[in-house]
Amino acid sequence: MHTMDLPLADVPARTPRSAPVANKYQADKLAKRLRHQVGRAIADFGMIEDGDKVMVCLSGGKDSYTLLDVLLQLQKKAPVNFSITAVNLDQKQPGFPEHVLPEYLSSIGVDYHIIEQDTYSVVSRVIPEGKTMCSLCSRLRRGALYTYAETHGFTKIALGHHRDDLVNTFFLNLFFHAKLSGMPPKLLSDDGKHVVIRPLAYVREDDIEAYAETKGFPIIPCNLCGSQENLQRKQVKKMLVQWEKDAPGRIETMARALGDIRPSQLSDPKLFDFLALGKRGDDALPNAHAWLAGTAAEAEPVAMALHPVRNHDGLDILKS
Ligand code: SF4
What we know:
The chain has about 325 residues and is α/β, with parallel strands linked by helices. It folds into 2 domains: about 5-255, 3-Layer(aba) Sandwich (Rossmann fold), CATH 3.40.50; about 260-320, no CATH class. The protein has helices spanning about 25-45, 60-75, 100-110, 120-125, 135-150, 165-175, 205-215, 230-245, 250-255, 290-295, and strands spanning about 50-55, 80-90, 110-115, 155-160, 185-190, 195, 305-310, 315-320. The strands form 2 sheets. The protein has a 6-stranded mixed sheet, with helices on both faces. The protein has a two-stranded antiparallel ribbon with strand order 7-8. Mean pLDDT is about 85; it is low at about 1-15 and about 300-320. Its EC number is 2.8.1.-.
């Protein structure tokens, strides 16, 4: 039977990595922890303010269901008024059970919209057979969602990335792009038009798995189209899982480190004015050319006027 034909309860769920939540007490504790972590992230990064129109991007995976569920709970007691609309992009992947999300969203009474756009045909036409399609697929998805947000006046776009995604992306950039850069909890899109927020930034993936299980969300797997995620991401995930196994708590330690950065203890002169550090006098320092040529070269001004610029991930960095 094709997945599209499956009744709601039969939509395959992801295999939970964590132990199932044993009783109501534990389930309540888990729900409370998630609300606490999401509330803290919202406050720490100023993610939501009075009058915001928040578009929650819903893929049908455990992360976005959890995000929507926890935000709806927090909305009831929030110190500010904001609206929530769940938005899903039906990308027309073969096997996508298109009835699942409308049925679920109607059952909980949340405002929602399903965008229908056949990005799947585009991706499968452009990407050679056997190659991973996820990167282009995600880019097209992002484009469609951002366009919808802009035309409908949403002030915030909420995504379901969690703590483990943030750590994972950090290592991907470190190992494969030689960059200390990650996935920030809040960012301005490259065109400056959208504020993207990730309220699950402090939440562990295995907590989300356990939560999704207790809530019985009708999970739609993201691999219905048969594409595999890219090899580098897989390698990093495998490494992190092994590290966590060898030293429980290591992912949490690394996630905390992402929020405790000391530019003066790294080696990026764009972030920290090493030239001015301990400098005696006002004379300009010789530049690299002068040092390499071994001549008393014309000095270039070295005093750095630090001003913020944005890197490609939307993070503010300082640049001379
Ligand atoms: S698994 Fe398929 S639907 Fe999911 S991101 Fe990759 S290409 Fe897109």
